[in-house]
Amino acid sequence: MDVSLVPADTSADVRERGSAVPRQVAVLPVGSYEQHGAHLPLATDTLVACAVAREIAAGHPVHLLPPVTVGCSHEHADWPGTVSISSMTLHAVVRDIADSLRRSGVEALVVVNGHGGNYVLGNVVQEAAARGERMALFPAAEDWEAARQRAGVLTSLLTDMHAGEIETSILLHAHPESVRPGYETADFVADDRRHLLSLGMSAYTDSGVIGRPSLASAEKGKELLASLADSFGAYFSFLTAEDLPAPVTGAPERGRS
């Protein structure tokens, strides 16, 4: 693994940073090890999650953790090199990390997810919140949409599903050496993927790509990361607040229980 993906903090660094905030917030990048076509590496989702986490750490006093590099990539199993763990294992790993952090005085955890197939991370956060723990999942779809618009990404989030304009742009900016030639002609669109969970990716693409990587650029990647770092400010504020904000509820609908 690229040593730059592993934070070089000492315990003293973590203690000093934590003394400047009302509550310490740790940031855990979670990726995957799965096919991303012929032009992006198997570690793409981990590299993206780490790039987002580093951008966050550059602007906020957070405790940056090393990444979880293998996730739930079962839909990509037809391509060589893909490795998956079960959703139960990923759930347990993230919960164990959060428990360990709290024992050392870090009360809040943000999971930066780089792989859409890691659905269980939403459950981890929901369950933690129900126990009164401070945890968040980032980025949300709204954060990605804001970033897409700011960066001038032309492909919609529906179309830009895998190894497309967004992922290729972020790696062209953060890890250009990892992007191989051929992305300029690798576009493939499959917006109707309603049976993806049952049939896997190979039912929708031969190349492994679903999206338009030909539209990618390093400048778009830079702006995507900058936008996500800005969006993170709201997460940092509520996780470090004395009291978590109350949920916003609408008026009950008549005639429904």
What's this entry about, in short?
With 257 residues, this protein is α/β, with parallel strands linked by helices. Helices cover 39% and strands 7% of the residues.
What do you see in this structure?
By secondary structure, the chain is of the alpha/beta class. Helices cover 39% and strands 7% of the residues. It has helices at residues 11-18, 44-59, 87-103, 120-130, 141-151, 165-174, 196-199, 218-240, and strands spanning 25-30, 63-64, 108-113, 134-138. Helix 4 (120-130) links the parallel strand 3 (108-113) and strand 4. Helix 2 (44-59) crosses helix 6 and helix 6 packs across helix 8. It is globular, with a radius of gyration of 19 Å. Residues 253-257 have low confidence and may be disordered.
Tally of DSSP β-strands: 4
In oligomeric terms, what are we looking at? single chain
What Rg, in angstroms, do the CA atoms define? 19 Å
Structural class: alpha/beta
Average pLDDT works out at: 93
Strand neighbour order, sheet with most strands: 2-1-3-4
Which range does the strand content fall in? Answer: 5-15%
What is the overall number of helices? Answer: 8
Percent of residues in helical segments?
Answer: 25-40%
- The backbone outline, from C-alpha atoms, is globular
List keywords for this structure.
257 residues; alpha/beta; four-stranded parallel β-sheet; 8 helices
List the SSEs and their pairings.
Layout (H helix, E strand, L loop, with lengths): L10 H8 L6 E6 L13 H16 L3 E2 L22 H17 L4 E6 L6 H11 L3 E5 L2 H11 L13 H10 L21 H4 L18 H23 L17
Parallel strand pairs: 1-2, 1-3, 3-4
Helix pairs in contact: 2-6, 2-8, 3-4, 5-8, 6-8
